[in-house]
Automatic annotation (TrEMBL), chain A:
One GO biological process term: amino acid transport
Keywords from the UniProt entry: Amino-acid transport, Signal, Transport
Source species of the chain: Tianweitania sediminis
Signal peptide interval: 1-21
The protein's name: ABC transporter substrate-binding protein
UniProtKB/TrEMBL annotation, chain B:
Alphabetical UniProt keywords: Amino-acid transport, Cell membrane, Membrane, Transmembrane, Transmembrane helix, Transport
Membrane topology listed for this record: Multi-pass membrane protein
Keyword set includes Transport: yes
Family: Belongs to the binding-protein-dependent transport system permease family. LivHM subfamily.
Gene Ontology CC annotations of this record: plasma membrane
Transmembrane segments: 16-37, 44-64, 70-89, 101-122, 142-162, 190-213, 225-252, 273-296
InterPro entries registered for this protein in UniProt: ABC_transp_permease, BCAA_transport_permease
Main localization (coarse): membrane
Protein's name according to its UniProt entry: Branched-chain amino acid ABC transporter permease
Annotated localization: Cell membrane
Organism lineage string: Bacteria, Pseudomonadati, Pseudomonadota, Alphaproteobacteria, Hyphomicrobiales
């Protein structure tokens, strides 16, 4: 239904070419239309920014819109591999799309780098040498919030949509949280009115609320929570309070704590450059999706400089070294090609007129995932 | 289970029902008068929300935004009627569904082109902020009470418009026999444009009122559209009274089901399993209700007088 959204982009800046001056073609399948488009747009923009800044003229990126539909993503992946002959694939935001695309892509011996989704099957028994997750395993942020909640809270009310990533989220939270649960509620996917759940939260006697409601659901919940007069503190994974939605939530988000592997105030050179360049290029603050897209591009650039993309074995080894300046500070791959990284707790703050996040604590240092032990690679 | 919580949830159900009514009333009006299935009704809801958010951001006033949402959605509705819908009245429902589905895509991408891919900010007006204390000491947001009030006003206004005015008389006549009223010298084309714009304005108002509670983003109209169709099928297609009772029934059943089913299940399975099974069952509840009502009354609760 959707036609090709954007054609090829060739980096125009003059500069140094990699050690191997052969062309590299990257296929990016991401969500550029529909309600979830903000996430894909940030991923794409940051990815293209990193390629442009590198000055590497041999890299060509083909971008197509999956409209957040698994069947469309599968079609685009087949087309990119078979008729456009891409060397690498990346870009998918949503776990259900990743589950539809990644296994068949890696089985065709094409390398896939995930800039966001990290469903647990692909981290455990279904891991693959051709699959690199540059973002996180899905449970990670929720685990971090569970760990952090132990310090302050004893009776948490937990809430997520009734679909696989929602269940992974509450499972992840409960894996590290030691207190009592005041309630556990699953909402409908796409639900927009949360008055009933908010009344339950107030009546439950909870001392805190943990919720995972990505995209518009989280905006609706947080606004309605703010309007309801309930003052029990909220916390959640960074997705619910990422830069792409904070503007729409407004002041209701201020003070909320959330977990993420990145924040714009993270103190390292690569991050400072990234935040400044992204703002200069696009006139807005980057989100975590942008940070992950930027890291994915820089990881690819680092591998291109070391090995030929046609020599799969050498190229995979070069990727696995993760020898690139990550905006997250330190970054390395575990045995299952998923990140080992620090996960922070952030607080939503108001800087002038802009609502954004600030790091207040570190929940985990060098955190990996619970599934790596099942991965036989 | 405390009584105050149950009362509060009933109120939440009513409020959700009135929210659905604002959307369903326009949809059923358009279907009743013109026999048109308008899938793009959700897009007009989105247009209302975006118009309100944009004007409220520019002027700082929610009320100006609300006016803009009515005007913007009515204008978009009238434009669409003249350019596209007018050619569809004689066609069968499949053609109407195809054309109005195309309109959804055009509106969605057009909105993205104008406003970008990120959700917009729209807050409730300060006048309606805060909460009232219900009996049983539970605070209840004033804005949600205001939505109930707005729904009641719209219901009353539509009743008066249709039963007491000349335009309403023509609308009823158009429902009954469109050839005859054209033969009597009434400009049926203009009448249809007016009715379509009125339905669009109601959708736009719903979008603005609800946009302040939820997220103003591309694609926000489609989930509501599905519920609105359930409402008008339950109420009887073409009947405003049916839309009102159907909406309230769906609102109350959905809200109390979400609360009570997990509670009921938790007495015999583990809380975690009860939460997810209860949620799954609750999401089916309104469709079960629709099937039951259709089995007993195939034309809905209040079938429109003339089909």
């Amino acid at each position: 239904m959707k036609q090709m959204m954007a054609a090829a982009l060739v980096a125009l800046c003059a500069g140094t070419a990699g050690a191997f001056a052969e062309p590299v073609k990257i296929g990016m399948i991401t969500t550029l239309s529909g309600g979830g488009a903000g996430l894909g747009v940030d991923t794409r923009d940051a990815f293209l920014l990193a390629i442009k800044k590198s000055g590497n003229k041999d890299i060509e990126v083909v971008v197509e819109d999956d409209a957040q539909k698994p069947e469309l993503a599968v079609q685009i992946a087949d087309k990119m591999i078979q008729s456009e002959k891409v060397d690498l694939l990346t870009g998918i935001i949503w776990s259900n799309l990743a589950m539809a695309v990644v296994p068949s892509v890696t089985a065709q011996d094409v390398i896939y780098l995930s800039p966001n989704a990290g469903p647990s099957p692909l981290a455990g028994a279904g891991c693959n040498a051709n699959y690199f997750n540059v973002a996180y395993q899905n449970d990670n942020f929720h685990e971090a919030m569970g760990q952090y909640a132990n310090g302050d809270y004893k009776k948490t009310f937990i809430l997520a949509p009734n679909y696989p990533a929602g269940k992974d989220s509450l499972t992840g939270f409960k894996r590290y949280y030691k207190g009592e649960l005041a309630g556990e509620v699953y909402t409908q996917l796409g639900q927009t009115d949360y008055a009933a759940e908010i009344a339950q939260i107030r009546a439950s006697g909870a001392d805190s609320v943990f919720f995972f409601l990505p995209g518009g659901m989280g905006i609706a919940f947080t606004k309605q929570y703010g309007q309801s007069g309930v003052t029990i503190p909220l916390m959640g994974p960074g997705f619910s309070f990422s830069q792409d939605v904070l503007g729409a939530i407004g002041d209701a988000a201020v003070g909320v704590r959330n977990s993420a592997s990145w924040s714009k105030d993270l103190d390292n050179e690569a991050n400072k450059t990234f935040v400044a360049d992204f703002q200069a290029e696009y006139g807005r603050l980057p989100s975590i999706y942008a940070a992950q897209g930027y890291d994915t591009a820089n990881l690819i650039l680092s591998a291109v400089a070391k090995a030929s993309v046609t020599d799969k074995e050498a190229f995979r080894a070069a990727l696995k070294e993760a020898d690139f300046p990550s905006v997250r500070g330190k970054f390395k791959f575990n045995t299952n090609n998923h990140p080992i990284q620090d996960i922070y707790v952030r607080e939503v703050v108001k800087e002038g007129d802009v609502i954004t996040n600030k790091i207040i604590a570190t929940a985990f240092t060098d955190h990996s995932d619970a599934y790596a032990k099942d991965c036989k690679m | 289970m405390q009584i105050p919580l149950l009362l509060e949830q009933l109120l939440n159900g009513l409020q959700f029902g009135f929210m659905l009514f604002l959307m369903a009333s326009g949809l059923t009006l358009i279907f009743g008068v013109m026999g048109l299935i308008n899938l793009a009704h959700g897009s007009l809801y989105m247009v209302g929300a975006f118009a309100c958010a944009a004007v409220a951001a520019a002027t700082g006033s929610f009320w100006l935004g609300l006016v803009a949402s009515l005007a913007g959605a009515a204008a978009a509705g009238a434009l669409v009627e003249v350019l596209v819908i007018r050619r569809l009245y004689g066609r069968d429902h499949l053609d109407q569904v195809l054309a109005t589905f195309a309109l959804i895509l055009i509106f969605s991408e057009g909105t993205r082109w104008l406003f970008g891919s990120f959700p917009l900010y729209l807050d409730i007006p300060p006048l309606l902020g805060g909460a009232l204390t219900l009996p049983g000491s539970a605070p209840y947001p004033i804005y949600r009470l205001a939505i109930i009030g707005a729904g009641l006003l719209v219901a009353l206004g539509l009743y008066l418009l249709i039963s007491r005015t000349r335009l309403g008389m023509r609308i009823r006549a158009g429902e009954a026999d469109r050839e005859m009223i054209a033969a009597l010298g009434i400009d049926i084309r203009t009448l249809y444009t007016i009715v379509f714009a009125l339905g669009a304005a109601l959708a736009g108002m719903a979008g603005a009122l609800v946009g302040a509670l939820q997220s103003v983003q591309v694609g926000m109209g489609e989930p509501v559209l599905i519920l609105a169709f359930v409402v008008i099928v339950i109420g009887g297609i073409g009947s405003i009274r049916g839309a009102l009772f159907g909406a309230l029934l769906v609102g109350v059943v959905d809200t109390t089901g979400r609360l009570l089913l997990p509670l009921a299940l938790s007495s015999f399975i583990s809380p975690s399993a009860a939460a997810s099974t209860g949620a799954a069952l609750a999401s089916m509840l309104i469709y079960v209700l629709m099937a039951l009502i259709l089995a007993l009354r195939p034309r809905g609760l209040f079938p429109a007088a003339a089909g």
